[in-house]
Amino acid sequence: MEPTVDQYVPSDYLPIIIQFAAALGFVVVTLLVTHMIGPKRKSDVKDAPWESGIESVGDARTPISYKYFMTAILFVLFDVEIIFMYPWAVNFKTFGIDGFIQMLVFMGLLLAGFFYVIKKGILDWE
């Protein structure tokens, strides 16, 4: 009995497995070869912490305001939501009135979240 179009056989996944194995093999071989043939010189200057040509001063564990992180998370959140609008805008005519209503609901939720953020004062810097 031959498989129908709706059935998958394990051999259908063979190209994916081969590509995954080739990529993994390339990474492993590259890491091993560069580790073996690379220079192994150590010195106090090379082993010292270095950041953009400026010597490290102070403690790296200084507290940072949570507002910085909240702003970064909100940027990513709203940025990803904007990405969802692009395919909708490209297929605007195809989706019709149903797609328009769905985007209105999406935009309503987006604006509700934005107003919540403003009301909580997360974007207010002191």
Automatic annotation (TrEMBL):
The gene is nuoA. This is NADH-quinone oxidoreductase subunit A. It is found in: Cell membrane; Membrane. Its main location: membrane. It comes from Pontibacter oryzae. It holds the Pfam family Oxidored_q4. It is an enzyme of class 7 (translocase). The chain crosses the membrane at residues 13-33, 68-88, 100-118. NDH-1 shuttles electrons from NADH, via FMN and iron-sulfur (Fe-S) centers, to quinones in the respiratory chain. The immediate electron acceptor for the enzyme in this species is believed to be a menaquinone. Couples the redox reaction to proton translocation (for every two electrons transferred, four hydrogen ions are translocated across the cytoplasmic membrane), and thus conserves the redox energy in a proton gradient.
